[in-house]
Structure formats: structure tokens, C-alpha cells
Specification:
Distance between the termini: 55 Å
Radius of gyration: 20 Å
Shape: globular
Structural class: alpha/beta
Order of helices and strands: EHEHEHEHEHEEHEHEHHHHHH
Helix content: 40-55%
Strand content: 5-15%
Number of helices: 13
Largest sheet: 6 strands, parallel
Length: 294
């Protein structure tokens, strides 16, 4: 068993940290809001007041936070994890969905501190995180990945190695940008069907069984019609906008037009500007009903 530092206990991180505790590892957690650590601490984790304190003697430092800013705060600075006294050759694993430029910069900081860095964003909703059924999209030296694999296995059902550091982040941003386009298109389809006088339950069921179906379309049809945009939130509108924005930035940097991506970004910008950033991304259907888009 290993000494693990886990930074970030949001909807995804809490379940992931709990999985490491259940696997028998010695886990020390940090979260900017300490109250969110109560459940995993009661399960056996220790709580640290700073990322640096959490990383003390750690053989692996895991982070699962919201964005570049939160990731930078977790790793850098006097209280950041990289300022800690961790075990020689420890792993630094960033599970967060963050921008490609920040991944590249962070990996250099980690290497300068003697850490083996794995770029490992994940796919899966909070229930998958709690069940250890995530898929990890890894960019790393293959030897580092194989050495870290036993530590990663409690978190996931699948590990996909895309190449060197940065490749995992690139794939995740591509996937999430495609998801953003699908979410916006599903909301538009449902609203169009509604205005055409069709039974939305029948429309949603038929779309979910048809050639245009995907896991995202199926989930959006169900959740948009349910209308519980403020309950059991799996992914907020603000996070969807963040992922769409950094996905478009990657596409722009690579020189591809990403016209649909830019349109999706504008739609989610309007959703957040309307005051719905903390609600589910499924709230988009109501934005279309209000005619705030178009």
C-alpha cells in the first residue's frame, strides 16, 4: 500500500479519494472547503490544511480540481504540493480537465522537482468515480504509466494511453468539445420538436433509439425532459463552458476552424451569463425556451 495525497474533493474527487481509502492506501486529502472532506475523513483519510502538507512523504500526489486556476493553486506556491517533501520519484497525477498549455507547463514543474508526471484526465460521471468505473486518458512515458498502474487501478475500469505527456489532455478536450456540440444540438432538437407540437417523451425515446443517438444524446434527452436542473447535478453549466472554451482554444492553436465548437461556446456563454452557471448543463433547454439564444 502507498501513501497518497489527494487534492480536490468535488463531485468527482470525493468518490475517487474514497476509492483509494477503500483500496487500503494511506490517504491524506486536501480541499479548499474543509467541510467537503468530512465523509472521506470518516472513512479513514487524514485531512491536511494545505496541498504541501498533504504531499508530505507521499509516494503519489493526485489532483482532481475544476480548472487551470485551481490546479495552479494546488501545485505551485509556498503551500502548493510541489513545495512539499514527498518520497523520491513520487508520481504527480493530474486528473483534472485543464488546458493543454497548462499541462505542458505543469509537467515541466513536476519534472524539475523530480516527480514522474502523468497527464490523466478522466471520463465518467460522479457515480462512476465512486464505483471505480472511470476511464483514464493518459499522456505519459510508458514506463511511468506501467509503474503507476497499480495505484490507478482502484479508480477505473479502463486506461487508454494516448502517448506522451499532453496527449491525454488533448484527447479529453477533443471528446468534451464534441460532447458540448451534442448537448447544444440535443437541446435544439427537443425545443424544435416542442414547438412543432410533438410529444417530447416520444421524441426523446425515439431519438435515443435512432441513428443520431449517443450516450450524451440519450442522457441529455432524459435529463432535459426531467427538468431537475438544480438537483443531483453531475456537471454544471460553468464547467461545461470551461471545457468548451479550452477545447476551442486547442482547436484554434492547431489551426482547425472548429465552427461548431465556437458556436457551442457562445451558447454556453449565454447560459452562464443568464445566471445558471451553478446549475446543470441541462438547463440549456430552458434557455432555448426563453429565446435567449439565436
Amino acid at each position: 500500500m502507498a501513501r497518497i495525497a489527494f487534492l480536490g474533493l468535488g463531485r468527482m474527487g470525493a468518490g475517487m479519494a474514497a476509492r483509494m481509502v477503500a483500496a487500503g492506501h494511506e490517504v491524506t486529502v486536501y480541499n479548499r472547503t474543509p467541510e467537503k472532506a468530512a465523509e472521506v475523513v470518516s472513512a479513514g483519510a487524514a485531512f491536511a490544511e494545505t496541498p504541501r502538507a498533504a504531499a508530505k512523504d507521499a509516494e503519489a500526489i493526485f489532483a482532481m480540481v475544476a480548472d487551470d486556476e485551481a490546479s495552479r493553486a494546488a501545485w505551485l506556491g509556498a503551500d502548493g504540493a510541489l513545495a512539499g517533501e514527498y518520497a523520491p520519484g513520487a508520481f504527480a497525477v493530474e486528473f483534472s480537465t485543464i488546458s493543454r498549455p497548462w499541462v505542458d507547463e505543469l509537467s515541466k514543474h513536476a519534472a524539475a522537482h523530480g516527480l514522474r508526471y502523468l497527464d490523466s484526465p478522466v471520463t465518467g460521471l460522479p457515480d462512476a468515480a465512486a464505483a471505480g468505473q472511470l476511464t483514464l486518458f493518459v499522456g505519459a512515458d510508458i514506463a511511468d504509466l506501467e509503474a503507476a498502474r497499480p495505484l490507478l487501478e482502484p479508480l477505473c475500469s479502463n486506461i487508454v494511453h494516448f502517448g506522451d505527456v499532453g496527449a491525454g489532455a488533448s484527447y479529453k478536450l477533443i471528446q468534451n468539445l464534441l460532447g458540448s456540440v451534442q448537448i447544444a444540438a440535443t437541446a435544439e432538437a427537443l425545443r424544435t420538436a416542442e414547438l412543432a407540437g410533438l410529444d417530447l417523451a416520444v421524441v426523446a425515446d425515439t431519438l435515443s433509439r435512432g441513428g443520431a443517438a449517443s450516450p450524451t444524446v440519450i442522457r441529455m434527452c432524459t435529463e432535459m425532459l426531467a427538468g431537475g436542473h438544480d438537483r443531483d447535478i453531475a456537471f454544471t453549466a460553468a464547467l461545461r463552458l470551461k471545457d468548451t472554451r479550452i477545447g476551442v482554444e486547442l482547436a484554434d492553436a492547431l489551426g482547425t476552424p472548429a465552427a461548431l465548437g465556437h458556436t457551442a461556446e457562445q451558447i454556453f456563454e449565454r447560459l452562464v451569463a443568464a445566471g445558471h452557471g451553478d446549475l446543470s448543463e441541462t438547463k440549456l433547454i430552458d434557455l432555448l425556451r426563453s429565446r435567449a439564444v439565436g
